[in-house]
């Protein structure tokens, strides 16, 4: 086996240099430049930056909400565990309600655990930062609740992934008047959603 | 917003049908067919199946190790939290040592936290199932330790991701005589690594 680079600072430097050389970041607004780099870094795909969509001022809205102490609502434990707690500006609570819902609960409500878990976000939704990194049904249910009058988050990060509903749920978010950053298409995931939160919390530092 | 599919069984059925229709699974050995489907499912990319590499008998070796009670050693908390504990066949311990290592420790050893954390796997390494879903340096350090005489895992799942060392560390694993399943290239991640473990634990059930 050849020698390998073990210096963390050098690994970051080379990684970010590769991303900046290959990814189409020129079209990103300044308040989302770090977010785009971090999302690309999380997945190893520089071309994915072209699939990012956002509402105007989304990056600033997310960063300000975090500094105000907004809770971070996530749809999966993997997202929660990808968020670097020590970098959060106001010791923001990171809340995943998925394990408060059983499969029997979901079966009784004829829906997914992920969708049902979103209903438990309601008391914390106003001004929150939402990060969906797994389940399209979580994002669909959130949009439904807000359409029906639920409080509005400060920002919704849409990184649902997969073959059933991921494209459609993120397109619905992008078409809405809600503050958002989302990745168009089937691709997404917990690592990208967590990376987006980490970027809003502290840029690339 | 249009109607959306909320029946979990139907979501799985349609997802797996799409994957089987689009992904090149014919070349996969029988003991890795479920693993390939689950890895594709985790990332939303059907073309990624073409980048999987494996040693002969890897799937069976991993499944048998889990049934024997092998510990699962992971390089990141996100991998640990993507593993469905209730499906593990022998209440296998899932061990992530990353948070046992501080940045000061890593700086003192002139390496990454991820690489240093792997040294803490040594007492559990023999016959284990290793899942690397994040750090190339964790995989490099593991291969170094084994080259130097450390015990051999029953299976190494190589899904390191990124721009510095991911390609090279996984190529080194694939070129070794160690039992492995790995994803060639920059792509990878915690969700894929956890999906691979989940497939070995219980197929698609």
From TrEMBL, chains A, B:
UniProt domain Cobalamin biosynthesis precorrin-8X methylmutase CobH/CbiC: residue ranges: 10-201
Keyword tags: Cobalamin biosynthesis, Isomerase
Keyword check for Isomerase: yes
Pfam families assigned to the protein according to its UniProt record, in alphabetical order: CbiC
InterPro entries named among the record's database cross-references: Cbl_synth_CobH/CbiC, CobH/CbiC_sf
Pathway(s): Cofactor biosynthesis; adenosylcobalamin biosynthesis
SUPFAM superfamilies: Precorrin-8X methylmutase CbiC/CobH (SSF63965)
GO biological process, one term: cobalamin biosynthetic process
Domain of life where this protein originates: Bacteria
MF (Gene Ontology): precorrin-8X methylmutase activity
Family affiliation: Belongs to the CobH/CbiC family.
Listed name of the protein: Precorrin isomerase
Native source organism of the sequence: Paramagnetospirillum caucaseum
Lineage: Bacteria, Pseudomonadati, Pseudomonadota, Alphaproteobacteria, Rhodospirillales
């Amino acid at each position: 086996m050849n020698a390998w680079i073990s210096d963390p600072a050098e690994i970051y430097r080379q990684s970010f240099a590769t991303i900046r050389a290959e990814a189409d970041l020129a079209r990103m607004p300044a308040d989302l430049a770090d977010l785009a780099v971090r999302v690309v870094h999380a997945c190893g795909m520089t071309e994915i930056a072209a699939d990012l969509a956002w509402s105007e001022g989304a990056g600033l809205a997310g960063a300000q909400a975090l500094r105000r102490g907004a809770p971070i609502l996530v749809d999966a434990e993997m997202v929660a565990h990808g968020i670097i707690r020590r970098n959060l500006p106001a010791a923001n609570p990171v809340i995943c309600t998925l394990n408060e819902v059983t499969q029997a609960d979901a079966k009784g409500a004829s829906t997914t655990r992920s969708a049902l878990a979103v209903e438990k976000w309601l008391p914390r939704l106003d001004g929150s930062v939402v990060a969906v990194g797994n389940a399209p049904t979580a994002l669909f249910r959130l949009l439904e609740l807000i359409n029906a009058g639920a409080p509005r988050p400060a920002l919704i990060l849409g990184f649902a992934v997969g073959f059933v509903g991921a494209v459609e749920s993120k397109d619905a978010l992008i078409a809405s008047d809600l503050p958002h950053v989302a990745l168009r298409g089937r691709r997404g995931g917990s690592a990208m959603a967590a990376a987006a939160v980490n970027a809003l919390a502290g840029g690339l530092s």
